[in-house]
Predict the structure of ABC transporter permease.
Amino acid sequence: MISTKLSKFIGTSQEDYYAFSSLNLKWLELKRQNSLLSISSIMVGIVFFVFMLSFLYFRLFTDLECDQEQYQMLSKLGLRQKELKQIVTRQMIILFFLPIVVAMVHSSFAFLTFHQLGQTVSKEMSVLQSSIVVLVIFICM
């Protein structure tokens, strides 16, 4: 590019009398910074997602026999089927709701990052458009 050739020729250090700065070079620098942030946040999201899946799998299958014994004892004590279903529903909500909340918080930060990235590239990218981009990437994975 012309801007990189000019910056090499003129120099950008403060010792030189002349300095060269262009909008294109600033845009490339911002793009590098945002891409590093995006890659690191995506990697953290993937690691967290895999961790939560393995945790849920482990928890579900290790507690299966213990839970069956508990529910059998509760039904022997005279707990009705409706009350037993409420207890199971509450436990499952706690088990599966927490990872979903954490994933939503992480996705909201990803939406904001894509929104800021869209503004630095001089394109007006709404939160809806950035959320669609994140969802498409999530579905492709």
Observations:
- The two ends are 35 Å apart (CA to CA).
- Residues 23-140 form one domain.
